[in-house]
Each structure stands twice: as C-alpha cells, then as structure tokens.
C-alpha cells in the first residue's frame, strides 16, 4: 500500500533538498518520488544528503509538469497555507489527511505535492490538486523547510498505515466505487466546459464559473461510476444541442 503513495516536489531549487526529502521518505517507508522541473538534477549534493536513501534518488522520475506527475492519482493533496480564494477541500489537521490518503492508497495511486522552497505552489498548481493540507505550527514562526514538511506529512501517513487494521488491505473497494484519476476528472471538466459553451450557458470565457464547478466536484468526490453517469448525461445533452 505504501508503494501507492507518491511524493511530488515541484521546481526544487536546491538539489540538497531533494536528497533530504528522499531520506525523510525512506524513513517512513515511502519510495515513489517524482520531480517536476527541478533546477538541478541529478546532482551530487542530492545523493550526499540522501544519506542512505540513494535508491529513492536513483528511482526518482523527472517530468515537465505537475499535471503529468499526478495524472494517474485519485487523490492529490497540496501542502500549502490555506487559500480561501481557492475553495478546495482543506485539511486543517494532517492526521485526518493521512487517514483519507491511506484509505485511497489501498487500491490506487495518491500524491502529496510540495512546492518551491521560497513561495510554494502557484494557484494554478493548487487547482490541479483535489485537496490542500496545512501543517499546524507556531503562528509567530510557522516556517518549515521542504524536507521538514515532507517528514511531517510522511510520518502522519506512516503512522496511519501502521495503526490501520491490516484486514482492510485485503478488501479494497470495487473499481466502480473508487475515485476517478485526476486525468479522468480532467476529461470530465473539459467535457463539461464544452457543453456549457455549446449550449449557450456560457457565452464567453468565464474562469470563475468553471473554477466554482471544479471546487463543487472536488467537494462531492464522485466515484468512477458516478462520473461515468455524468459523462453519459453530458453526451446526451451534447447530442440534443447539436441536433443529432
């Protein structure tokens, strides 16, 4: 199950932080590391600070975009300060996040996403996530470096995995009850956008309306079967609008 939990680092500036994050992962049984456009990788400093977790570094995958990094994941949690301008479901407590993430990881890939050292994830990158999570800290100085943040959340995940009855892992949910991947959900939102425009519901680009609908479905968390039903409804509406 832990093999289904992915750590994604976006545009890491210091290669040593990649190594330290790999070390934090390995201590908690995680080994799936994906790097989105790192400034410098491979790098000797990354290997040096991995300190025994060189296998995680060696197996790390480098991709060009966050979208590619999480396409096959059913839950994607962005580690960031709470942004009320982006109404995604938010975990105020990492423990609750870990409970849900481990539940999904019993059958499908999931991801924890961490942004740049200086300014974290952009709004567009957070929109590619299904949830946000914040790490409670001293309000007067709540700054963690990248590897520390990875360590805290990886620990919560590992603790939850250890405490969960292992009988749960023998009975994963049926495929139709599982969450859709981010790629499947992206196809749905693209389909919904086309129907809204061709039907006349939207007569011009309206990012706010589409963003609100993205947030609505993020909160609803439709299953794969439910998403398939919605896609069927959209196809029927599409045919009615086109006159076919």
UniProtKB/TrEMBL annotation:
One of its GO terms (cellular component) is cytosol. Its EC number is 2.1.1.200. Residues 5-155 form the tRNA/rRNA methyltransferase SpoU type domain. It comes from the Bacteria. It catalyses: cytidine(32) in tRNA + S-adenosyl-L-methionine = 2'-O-methylcytidine(32) in tRNA + S-adenosyl-L-homocysteine + H(+); uridine(32) in tRNA + S-adenosyl-L-methionine = 2'-O-methyluridine(32) in tRNA + S-adenosyl-L-homocysteine + H(+). GO terms for biological process: tRNA nucleoside ribose methylation. InterPro entries: Alpha/beta_knot_MTases, RNA_MeTrfase_TrmJ/LasT, SpoU_MeTrfase, tRNA_m1G_MTases_N. It is found in: Cytoplasm. Homodimer. Catalyzes the formation of 2'O-methylated cytidine (Cm32) or 2'O-methylated uridine (Um32) at position 32 in tRNA. Belongs to the class IV-like SAM-binding methyltransferase superfamily. RNA methyltransferase TrmH family. This is tRNA (cytidine/uridine-2'-O-)-methyltransferase TrmJ. The gene is trmJ.
